[in-house]
Input
Amino acid sequence: MKKYIILIFPTIVIIFITLPLFNIIATPKFDDILVALRDKEVVASLKLSIYTSVFAAFISLAAGTPTAYFLARREFPFKRFVEGIIDLPLMIPHPVIGLAILSIITKNYWFGKILNSLAIEVIGSVKGIIIVLTYVSLPFYINTVKAGIKLIPERLEKVSRSLGKSPIETFFRVTLPLSYKSILEGMIMAIARAISEFGAVIVIAYHPMIAPVMIYEKFTSFGLKYSAPVAVSLIALCLALFILMRVLSQKR
Output
């Protein structure tokens, strides 16, 4: 009996996590979900969530992969401080992130003046949503890929360099292929974080509505009955994306 006592706490944790999800899934009728999926605004918000989240994840891929490699392979003064700065979006309240981004894109700030001179609209635009989603998801990608690169023996890179390959060639021919799994996992984490963001997005772009904002709009206007079907649709979408990414990862 004593050896099963340790199972009590994992069981409690699993119930704590799954019970609300199972309940929200069971709340709406199947017909209500079909009605929600026929709603053009709901479909548009789901598509926008997918598009902006994937776009933000690919920005994280482009900017975060070299950053993760640098942090994994180099020691330098104030490295822990730099890593702490990268992790800041994980700790800052999400509405504060939205306000912080808003403060630099207003026409009164020099960066906002540059955007205005280039006719780049951020507030209330898809570009603004992508900026916010990239901001909140980038640390997840960098930390995941950095951990994966650390597991790759550095001697393999040294062998490549001893054979006359440049650092860039070594990165693309040795490090990158060996770290594909952590990169895919980082993409999954980035998409997961981005597709769930709400607090920072409503500060920058309440419209056009992504799915979390649409759920909030439905709930405040009509209550749980009308917001639950949209929530179930978003849960199903997230599960489908993650299953697809996991399958691709396993096949690779």
Remarks:
- The two ends are 43 Å apart (CA to CA).
- The chain has one domain: 29-251.
